């Protein structure tokens, strides 16, 4: 598992890169690295995204093709879906539990 420090650096770098990418399109979006939880990197976007900024983000992701696209893992997707639903419904306990479950799954299925 990556060290706590590596995860903190990865979060800081990704937050900076994402903010810079928005900046390059004339958008000012504050992206804040969060402390790692269970071996996972978290970022917060501290500004409400305008329609244009949201569109930039989805268009960039849609246009991106990873050099070695990982095969989607059904288990990962199920855990993410469950966590997203819990966050939407304000079920914090389940959201936190799913973050932990994802940490274990990443460690044992994808290490
Ligand atoms: Zn998986």
Could you list some keywords that capture this structure?
binds zinc ion; 12% strand; 2 domains; two-stranded antiparallel ribbon; mainly alpha; 111 residues; single chain; 4 helices
In terms of topology, how is this protein built?
Elements: H1 4-24, E1 31-37, E2 40-45, H2 51-63, H3 74-88, H4 92-109
Antiparallel strand pairs: 1-2
Helix pairs in contact: 3-4
The structure holds zinc ion.
Order of helices and strands: HEEHHH
Walk across the major sheet and give the strand order: 1-2
From the N-terminal CA to the C-terminal CA, the straight-line distance is 7 Å
Weakly predicted, low-confidence segments: none
The amount of helix comes to: 55-70%
What percent strand?
5-15%
Calculate Rg over CA atoms.
15 Å
The strand count comes to 2
Quick check: average pLDDT?
Answer: 89
**Please, how many helices?**
4
What ligands can be seen in this structure? zinc ion
Tally of separate domains? 2
Please tell me about this protein's structure.
The protein is mostly helical. The protein has two domains: 1-63, no CATH class; 71-111. The protein has four helices and two strands. The protein has helices at 4-24, 51-63, 74-88, 92-109; strands at residues 31-37, 40-45. It has a two-stranded antiparallel ribbon. Helix 3 (74-88) packs antiparallel against helix 4. The termini are close together. Zinc ion is lined by residues 73, 75-76, 105, 109-110. This is DNA-binding protein.
